[in-house]
């Protein structure tokens, strides 16, 4: 259930100070964005059931037959601040369907930080670049930029048994929105 950091790209770089506080923030990034930028708007890009892709299998170690991918973009002042993908294994969804059904009208952050049965088991941050598969999920938000980005990957459980995962990739628009 825990992520093996060895499976992630190691760039040997350290995050810039203005990004590091976002990567290590233990509470809702959305609430932090609202506080720092004055607004935050979530746009759901897609939410669907798929077979686990290579990244799900290799990075998360998922062997399940289906996972739900929920991709969102978080904006402030029309700037894309981060991309996030929630990965929910089918068994985790089936164990607590009412919880995950709330994603139709609530953000994952609202669910995670308001539900006492949800626990963050692990959070790691790492850089991504053109050698990372995750980088190519972001093409519409990067344009022709070829920049290193920072991400954080969290493992959550519900009632200490049903894991789900959240990858958040901070985009260059975040700094434009908070400065």
Automatic annotation (TrEMBL):
GO terms for molecular function: chorismate lyase activity. GO terms for biological process: ubiquinone biosynthetic process. GO terms for cellular component: cytosol. Keywords: Cytoplasm, Lyase, Ubiquinone biosynthesis. It holds the Pfam family Chor_lyase. PANTHER family: CHORISMATE PYRUVATE-LYASE. This is 4-hydroxybenzoate synthetase. It comes from Legionella donaldsonii. The gene is ubiC.
């Amino acid at each position: 259930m825990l992520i093996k950091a060895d499976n992630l790209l190691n760039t040997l770089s350290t995050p810039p100070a203005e990004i590091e506080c976002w990567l290590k923030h233990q509470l809702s990034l959305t609430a932090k964005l609202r506080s720092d930028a004055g607004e935050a708007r979530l746009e759901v890009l897609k939410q669907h059931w798929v077979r686990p892709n290579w990244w799900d299998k290799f990075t998360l170690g998922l062997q399940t037959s289906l996972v739900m991918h929920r991709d969102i973009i978080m904006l402030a002042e029309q700037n894309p601040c981060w991309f996030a993908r929630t990965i929910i294994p089918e068994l985790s969804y089936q164990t607590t369907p009412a919880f995950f059904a709330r994603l139709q009208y609530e953000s994952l952050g609202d669910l995670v930080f308001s539900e006492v049965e949800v626990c963050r088991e692990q959070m790691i941050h790492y850089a991504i670049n053109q050698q990372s598969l995750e980088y190519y999920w972001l093409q519409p938000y990067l344009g022709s930029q070829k920049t290193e980005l920072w991400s954080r990957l969290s493992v959550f459980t519900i009632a200490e048994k049903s894991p789900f995962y959240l990858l958040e990739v901070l985009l260059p628009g975040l700094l434009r929105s908070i400065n």
